[in-house]
Amino acid sequence: MAQVLVLNGPNLNLLGTREPGVYGTTTLAAIEKAVRNLARRLRCEVRFLQCNGEGELVEALHDAMGWADAVVLNPAAYGHTSVALRDAISGIRLPVVEVHLSNIHAREPFRRHSLTAEVAVGLISGFGADSYLLGLQAALAYLAQHPPRSREAGGVRRRRSESQ
Ligand code: DQA
Known about the structure:
Layout: E1 3-8, H1 20-23, H2 28-41, E2 45-50, H3 54-64, E3 70-74, H4 78-81, H5 83-92, E4 96-100, E5 122-125, H6 130-145, H7 148-153, H8 160-163
Parallel strand pairs: 1-2, 1-3, 3-4, 4-5
Helix pairs in contact: 2-6, 3-5
């Protein structure tokens, strides 16, 4: 069963009341519930996490190397600014699907560039809470075409339990 980390960046804990005209009124808890329902239907396991700190997000990505097959990441504002997050994505060598609720290309110029999307396997942006559901489906489709085992054969990574 595929294991996926769904990781959320700063201020996404405020969803529901934060700029509802841009992000809607769906809370992060409601998004988590929808993601978990879809994961159950698609028979995968998800861990859902939100951190406001850049370092915490980097740590969560490092930790994912030990157990996850893929990551669905909403880096929030750090996607536009964080070299550390970008380097973490490159470093863990897990497929990362970047998601945004809003269409970052239809907003202010400073949001139109994502440092992290450049090292992700793909980007889904603009579908509100559905961006997460599409992101999970994209991550699973990617894994079906690039099974973890074949990536391991190339020396990419090994599960902790398998490396003992
Ligand atoms: C966001 C878009 C970012 O530009 C912004 O900083 C966020 C949310 C989105 O999901 O639309 O915090 O990642």
